[in-house]
Amino acid sequence: MKNNAQNLLIMLKNHGVECNMYDIKGLYKVQCGKFSQKSEAYDLKKKLSSLGYDALVTTKIAQSSQDIRAVDSSSEQSSHHEINPPPKIAQTFKEKPDTKLQEYKQKITAPHAPTLINRVVAVVNKEVITWSELYKVMEFEATAQVKNLSEEERKKIFKESEASFLETLIDMRLQLQEARTMGLEVTPEEITETIENIKKKYSMTQADFTDSLKKEGLTLEDYQKRLSEQILINKVINYQIRNKIVVSDAEVKQYMEANKEAFSGSETYRLRQIFFKKPEGNADKKTIDDKALEIIKRLKAGEDFSALARVYSEDPSGRLGGDLGFVNKDLLAKEFVAVLSNMNIGDFSMPFWTDKGLHIIKLDEKVSAQNRDKVRDDVRRQLTEEQFSEKYKSWAKGLREKAFIEIRL
Q1: Can you say how many angstroms the Cα of residue 28 is from the centroid of all Cα atoms in its chain?
Q2: DSSP three-state, residue 264
Q3: What is the spatial distance between Cα 200 and Cα 225, in angstroms, rounded to a whole number?
Q4: pLDDT tens, 66-92?
Q5: What is the rounded radius of gyration, in angstroms, for the C-alpha atoms of the chain?
Q6: How far is CA 276 from CA 12, 218, 288, 341, in A?
Q7: Whole-Å CA distances, 183 to 125, 177, 239, 257, 392
Q8: For residues 258 and 383, what is the distance between their CA atoms, to the nearest angstrom?
Q9: What is the band of 61 on the pLDDT scale with cuts at 50, 70, 90?
Q10: CATH topology of domain 265-368
Q11: Under CATH, which number does the domain 120-243 receive?
């Protein structure tokens, strides 16, 4: 896959290794180095090995796939044989004229399909997470807006998201291990039923479904494996947390009485925000403006508002995805009211300043004062999610505390 080769180029460049990518009849090869001495190539091979990559040193760009000369990785003695792309490989080539390279690109036939460059980025108990797994998940989870960005913009977002996605993968791996320890499992019937429900929900035929997997670069087996893991995680979370949460009528009433000012007046808003505290100087204010515009760019690309709030917001609500709960219109600052007047449910605002700092808000819901039953239902859902968030956080932290985790990103 072209994206995998491009991601490899970025990773190697970050370590000071300049490489080039070549499209050879649908295979994307990464070649590193320009050497006149064999020892120089082996020095780079040693560096790549220290970074977790396997490399193959070649000594000639061939006229055909039968004429490639390769140096065995265990010695510096030349041997003549075809090169089959190994599972983990970054190639270090001797510099040759462009005309030779073009001939090579036109004539070489790859004996095997390409495979991902791999290295271990985390160890979770006795299991490993590889770099290719991490990038496969980021590519799979990317929204349509992110996938439609230019390659450069998409790579930038993926690079910035590596650490946070790896933390999510670690949590998922721990939860899968916990589910299996508890003896939970997913049957083939459950997977089939879930796929049928997905097809029904999106009015997809079997051909539509197959085409969708193909566009995502997934086989049916890959998708069934991902689906099985998601179902298993949902099972253990429901068993350990969600099924044990009960919000009583008394709790709902108590919350509404404690916040009665929020439920009076003409309108009540359910808001989320990403907030930055007001800085001392104008230079710092410019930095915050730039950071906020970058967040807007990511929101427009389809990233989740709640996830960004958890990472960037300097308000205590950040840990709840920026959720401010229900706020009465009469209690809001004039800047908020002005911004909300032009927003529809689901919209997020452009950044705006108040005397407290800079805000980006999202309108989740708008409720009239007369619809009290809906308010009570919404409050119950809010309290349920708040309890779930706290209990889930504590449970996930407990899994980490008793696990062996080593991060190698």
Answers
A1: 23
A2: coil
A3: 20
A4: 332 333 333 333 332 332 333 333 343
A5: 27
A6: 35, 40, 7, 22
A7: 18, 10, 12, 44, 20
A8: 13
A9: very low
A10: Chitinase A; domain 3 (3.10.50)
A11: 1.10.4030.10
